[in-house]
Amino acid sequence: MTDTVTDPPGITVPGVNPTGIVLRRAGMASFIGTFVEWFDYASYGFLATVIAVVFFPGTDARTALLATYAVFALSFIVRPIGGIIWGHFGDRIGRQKTLSLSIFIMSAATFVIAFLPTYESVGLWAAGLLLVARLVQGFAASGEYAGAASFLAEYAPDNKRGMMTCLVPAGEAAGLLAASLFVAILHGLLTTEQLHSWGWRLPFLMALPLGYVGVYIRRRLDETPHFKALEEAQHVPQTPVIELLTSHCREVLIAFGGTLLNAVGFYLVLSYMPIYLSTELGISETAAFIGSTASLAVYLGSIFLMGALSDHIGRKKVLMACSVLFAILTVPMFVLLSGAVFTGVPSTGFFIILGVWALFGALLSMNGGTLPTFLCELFPTRVRFSGFALSFNSANALFGGTAPLIATWLIGVTGSKLAPAWYLVGAAVVTFAAIAISTAGRAGSRLKDE
């Protein structure tokens, strides 16, 4: 059963009943597709200490880890470029075709990593090949998050858009959780020699079958009602990125600043933290990944609550409250983490770490469960994919992908294990300012169709 909504410019957008099969398929495709891409992408981050040994031997542990994170960060260089390219095609030919191609490229690039030679076999060529594969991964990922969020937001009804669009960050978190669990199992079952020899390749081998499932589901979906309405009205832009930068610069800057906390927080809390706890605070890698799994589980379980809350009080209030809480609580929570290691009672210290990490996951879900909908409502349909992709990927390229590298470098330069906490506080302050000046994200907001 459908209804129609006529917007002021005269574009008629067919709405989809939230209980309809089309909306359910759209939700499933968005969740599974994002899950596949982020399982592939996260496996590298969780295996950073192993990859450091395999691809950068002969150096001290910190230098090897820095080199590994440099490759991680360099893969984000292509994200803004990818955002422009994917955004162009997403706004020109549609969300569905663009998303099907992005997941295919991601899966292929990840699968190739499983067969890369090591430093022991080919020397520095190994690191070069790893970088190429990571660059392709970064290019593919730049189209995934923005496209999946735009796709689902354009299917969801106005009063449930926050809840429905949460399937995208939920798929992302589930992919991270699955990767964390998989790597934790590898660390628990394999010896160090086995992990360094062949165990690290296993998560990357899974990319091909998972990618096939994602492509299959996405190819069976129709285009979104909002994009179809633009096509029928012949309002599809010829050069969406140029239109974006000439007519929506303010929105791009707000989106960039609004994404900063998400970019830094996501990669520090959900990707870098296991490495921080094991390399900087000295707890076992298995314990660190158990803690990571707990944090991800809380994050995943809280996302839908935050999305539903944003449907009632608006995205803006939730995002601003999240920024304030991060600014106030981050440093004290890092102090608790450091103190927990030296309690003298291992079990007590571990439970403190779990509690702090779970709280980080809950706080991050306030942002992660709300930001995609906010960014979708910030831009009109004509340039939604481009605006979301360019701002989101630029923030992640400059501050997200570099977060583990900067955190590791800051600790080395300052000698303070609290340095990453202050970096996260700075990101929270910038995001608060950006969201505060925005007029989007209020309760009852509708998608703009012009």
UniProtKB/TrEMBL annotation:
Gene Ontology molecular function: any one: symporter activity
GO CC term (a single one): plasma membrane
Mode of membrane association: Multi-pass membrane protein
Sequence ranges assigned to domain Major facilitator superfamily (MFS) profile in this UniProt record: 26-444
Pfam families: MFS_1, Sugar_tr
InterPro entries: H+-coupled_symporters (IPR051084), MFS (IPR011701), MFS_dom (IPR020846), MFS_sugar_transport-like (IPR005828), MFS_trans_sf (IPR036259), Sugar_transporter_CS (IPR005829)
Keywords from the UniProt entry: Cell membrane, Membrane, Symport, Transmembrane, Transmembrane helix, Transport
SUPFAM superfamilies: MFS general substrate transporter
UniProt KW Membrane keyword: yes
TM region(s), chain numbering: 38-58, 64-86, 98-116, 162-186, 198-217, 252-275, 287-306, 318-342, 348-366, 387-409, 421-441
Compartment(s): Cell membrane
Principal place of residence: membrane
Family under the similarity heading: Belongs to the major facilitator superfamily. Metabolite:H+ Symporter (MHS) family (TC 2.A.1.6) family.
UniProt-listed PANTHER family: ALPHA-KETOGLUTARATE PERMEASE
Protein name per the record: MFS transporter
Organism whose genome encodes this protein: Paracoccus onubensis
